[in-house]
From TrEMBL:
This is ABC-2 family transporter protein. It comes from the Archaea. It comes from Haloferax massiliensis. The keyword Transmembrane helix applies. It holds the Pfam family ABC2_membrane_2. The chain crosses the membrane at residues 56-75, 101-122, 134-156, 168-190, 260-282, 346-364, 384-403, 424-452, 464-485, 492-511, 599-620. GO terms for molecular function: ABC-type transporter activity.
Length: 626
């Protein structure tokens, strides 16, 4: 049994913090995000009509809350040295991991169990129906779901060697294996294994449907859908009923690809396997983070030495005494330091490799997309990987930049030089952005090179423009991440902020509908958008959406914030259910007002860089360094 003192300490520490209660607030807010179900769906749900909003809110919010509370739980103790103190007592390494998982899981369970009945009560007031046994079962499932996700994140924290790696891995698991499993990850895996894109004519549709069940949120949905008495599947109860009615006109759907009871071992397998990995890593690993160089670092250190070239074109531009040194300011040495620091590490290359794999797997689009884009297909394939994986990967590589140096005290050494604070921050941003942009530029060129036999050579002018916009997007996200690291005081707060931003972006489709309804007093459905420029402006607000708008203009795709493939295959096709809004389809013209022009979108994207960096400069110059 784990030490109850660890469980009790972690439980009390977390409840005294803000994250569990922010979780309760997020549950309340996210429950209002989905649009109200149709009357036919409500009628078929019956007594279960009061539960789908609470079911969906728990499924979406709990993974992010567990990631925020768990990603530093063990690796933070190792970095601060307190892990050695704790393990100097009778506490074992296994007790430490299990105790933290139970304590933090209980801390997340409290706001979930407090908020879920409130959400169900509101649903009961709206639909005038409730089942108390179903409510009890839903509470049990929600509590188990909270413990399962917390166990996963704490175990991953125990297996990581630094906070940055823990944040990146936990963030990737939360998105790819949690939120995006049914919609994106399974399709990418199917493409990788079979070499074909999932479609209506694929060879084994039952297997493809079964794979969607093998994630923790999908298993949670399956079990709670069975509890609510609706067609089971990896989606909310309202969605399952809506799909069944739209496809068959009745709830008498075909048999599910797997028995319902399979959801139980899937639900238990995630935390069990994660705990096995985490406990094994901390039992047989060094308690000191980065106790030895990793395999990649050792391989790089043992690489064959090559003769050094005294002067290269790159040296003449960015080297000491090069063209960059002639620019005003004293930020150049710090920029070089940050560039070397990132390019000598594995983070930027892992990010680039992930984007490259996602781009290569998307090189086999439908015939419609191939005919419309031709040699521009590889650039279109990279839109979503760069905007989503590259954007949030950049935030993960920058959100600890300044706050870590403040915690370690090394920021005072930098401040003791002749470089001003403003030049320090500018150098950090330019150096880190240049390193990340360098890896993504190589990814774009590599993807285009791989695609030559299949799609031909990308048009040079389109390729150059795409690279320029990609570099601008990277600088925007780097500036935002470093600004966040400058304004906040604690690494935990910065990490939570990144996870909140990820959640906002993932639900921006619904949030933009709510904001537009609050501004205009008119409720909207994004699948039937209003012909209002203000609505489109809201839909395009995130940097990733603006990146799509600008790159779509370069690719010759109609003006839209959706990716090029989605615009061509969904938004512009008749009788296709899509939430992608195209200006031409909504107004009959490419640009109804000047502020929806792609050139203006580029200016808005640059504002996402300028405004946060300006705020960070003001804060950095006026605040104390401690």
């Amino acid at each position: 049994m784990p030490s109850m003192s660890v469980v009790r300490t972690e439980f009390q520490r977390c409840l005294r913090g803000k994250t569990p209660w922010l979780l309760a607030l997020c549950l309340l807010l996210v429950s209002r995000v989905p649009t109200s179900p149709e009357q036919a769906v409500v009628r078929h749900l019956g007594d279960a009509a009061a539960f789908p909003r609470a079911q969906t809110a728990v499924a979406i919010v709990v993974p992010f809350a567990a990631a925020a509370l768990g990603f530093r739980s063990v690796v933070g103790e190792r970095e601060s040295g307190t892990a050695r103190v704790l393990l100097g007592t009778e506490l074992s390494r296994t007790d430490l991991v299990v105790g933290k998982a139970l304590g933090r899981g209980a801390a997340i369970m409290v706001p979930v169990l407090v908020t879920t009945p409130l959400l169900v009560a509101y649903g009961t007031y709206t639909y005038e129906s409730i089942s108390l046994p179903v409510l009890a079962g839903l509470l049990v499932a929600a509590a188990a779901y909270a413990f399962a996700w917390t166990t996963v994140t704490v175990s991953l924290s125990a297996a990581m060697s630094s906070t940055t790696r823990a944040a990146g891995v936990v963030f990737a698991v939360t998105l790819l294996l949690g939120i995006f499993w049914s919609d994106i990850t399974v399709a990418l895996l199917w493409n990788l294994v079979t070499g074909s894109t999932p479609s209506n004519e694929m060879a084994h549709p039952e297997l493809f449907s079964a794979l969607k069940w093998f994630s923790l949120p999908s298993a949670y949905y399956v079990l709670t859908d069975w509890l609510l008495g609706v067609p089971v599947g990896p989606g909310s109860a309202a969605l399952q009923v809506s799909d069944a009615l739209r496809n068959n006109g009745t709830l008498a759907t075909a048999s599910p690809p797997l028995p319902v009871w399979v959801g139980v071992p899937i639900f238990l397998a995630w935390p069990a396997l994660a705990l096995l990995v985490g406990v094994s890593a901390i039992r047989y690993g060094d308690l000191t983070p980065r106790g030895g160089p990793g395999r990649l670092r050792r391989t790089w250190a043992n690489r064959p030495s090559l003769p050094r070239v005294a002067v290269t074109p790159a040296t003449a531009v960015v080297g000491r005494g090069g063209w960059v040194d002639s620019l005003p300011g004293r930020w150049q040495p710090l920029a070089r330091r940050e560039f070397r620091r990132l390019t000598h590490g594995s983070g930027v290359w892992l990010l680039g490799a992930t984007v490259l794999v996602a781009g290569v797997l998307s090189l086999s689009p439908s015939t419609l997309v191939r005919d419309a884009l031709g040699a521009r297909v590889p650039l279109a394939a990279l839109q979503s990987p760069i905007s989503v994986i590259g954007g949030f990967g950049t935030l993960l590589l920058t959100f600890r930049t300044v706050v870590t140096e403040r915690d370690s005290g090394s920021i005072r050494m930098t401040a003791g030089t002749a470089v001003s604070r403003s030049a320090t921050l500018v150098g950090v941003i330019i150096g880190r952005a240049s390193a990340i942009a360098f890896s993504l530029v190589l990814v774009v060129l590599g993807t285009c090179l791989v695609a030559i036999p299949q799609h031909g050579v990308a048009p040079p002018h389109v390729l150059v423009g795409f690279l320029a916009v990609t570099v601008a997007f990277v600088y925007c996200m780097t500036g935002f991440g470093v600004a966040l690291s400058t304004v906040v005081r604690r690494q935990m707060v910065a990490g939570v902020a990144v996870l909140v931003l990820a959640g906002l972006y993932l639900t921006w489709f619904q949030i933009s509908n709510i904001v537009y309804g609050a501004l205009t007093g008119t409720a909207v459905n994004g699948f039937s958008p209003p012909a209002s420029p203000t609505y489109l402006l809201l839909r395009w607000a995130p940097p990733a959406s603006l990146y799509h708008v600008v790159t779509n203009a370069l690719l010759g795709v109609p003006n839209s914030a959706g990716n090029a493939a989605g615009v061509l295959t969904d938004a512009l096709q008749s009788n296709v259910f899509s939430n992608i809004v195209v200006v031409r389809a909504a107004y009959g013209a490419d640009v109804p007002v000047w502020y929806l022009h792609p050139a203006v979108a580029l200016g808005e994207l640059l504002c996402w860089f300028a405004l946060p960096v300006a705020l960070a400069l003001i804060s950095y110059r006026r605040r104390a360094l401690d």
